């Protein structure tokens, strides 16, 4: 299976720590307002998934969404979530710790693109069946 979003070891470790601190989490790739195009991490109870958000995948058991218009820009790339120091002000949960999630990317191969194009984007309300039972608290 081709993953649209993955995370580095450093990012995965930070997600696990944040889950221990805050409970169930959700990610949303910002579309440019306030935070630029940064991946944002929230408590699931603090973020409402919009009807136009697209489900990209999971990071350490946490769903990752992106706005539909931003998805169009990133649709030919695999997002690689990483961590950097000195993130500055942010609404994202990791920011008070002096770190920041960032998005790196790589272009999909032609074959990967053909497969993904055939599947199409996953709207917020239609997460894959294999993960649906773990996210009953997500509202769309």
Task: Describe the secondary structure blueprint for this structure.
Elements lengths: L4 E3 L1 H14 L2 E5 L9 E5 L9 E7 L2 E6 H7 L2 E9 L13 E9 L2 H10 L2 E2 L5 H4 L8
Parallel strand pairs: 1-6, 2-5
Antiparallel strand pairs: 2-3, 4-5, 4-8, 6-7
Please write the string of helix (H) and strand (E) elements: EHEEEEHEEHEH
Derived structural class = alpha/beta
Approximately how much helix is present in the residues? 25-40%
Distance between the termini: 25 Å
The 3D shape can be described as globular
* Contiguous uncertain segments of 5+ residues: 128-140
Report the portion of residues in β strands.
25-35%
Could you tell me the number of beta strands?
A: 8
Instruction: Enumerate how many helices there are, as a single number.
Output: 4
Radius of gyration: 14 Å
Largest sheet, strands/sense/barrel: 5 strands, mixed
Biggest β-sheet: strands ordered side by side in the sheet: 3-2-5-4-8
Name the average pLDDT.
83
Model description:
- Helix content is 25%, strand content 33%.
- Strands 3-2-5-4-8 form a five-stranded mixed beta sheet. Strands 1-6-7 form a three-stranded mixed beta sheet.
- The chain has 140 residues and is of the alpha/beta class.
- A hairpin with a 2-residue loop joins β4 (53-59) and β5 (62-67).
- The protein has helices at residues 9-22, 68-74, 110-119, 129-132, and strands spanning 5-7, 25-29, 39-43, 53-59, 62-67, 77-85, 99-107, 122-123.
- Residues 128-140 have low confidence and may be disordered.
């Amino acid at each position: 299976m081709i993953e649209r979003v993955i995370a580095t070891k450093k990012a995965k470790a930070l997600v696990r720590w944040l889950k221990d601190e805050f409970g169930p989490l959700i990610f949303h790739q910002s579309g440019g307002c306030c935070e630029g195009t940064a991946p944002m991490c929230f408590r699931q109870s603090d973020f409402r998934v919009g009807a136009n958000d697209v489900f990209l995948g999971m990071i350490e058991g946490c769903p990752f969404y992106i706005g539909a218009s931003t998805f169009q820009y990133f649709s030919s790339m695999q997002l690689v979530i990483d961590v950097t120091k000195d993130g500055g002000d942010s609404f994202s949960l990791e920011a008070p710790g002096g770190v920041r999630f960032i998005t790196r990317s790589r272009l999909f191969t032609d074959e990967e693109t053909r497969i993904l194009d055939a599947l199409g984007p996953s709207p917020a309300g239609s997460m894959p069946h294999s993960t649906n039972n773990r996210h009953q608290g997500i509202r769309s």
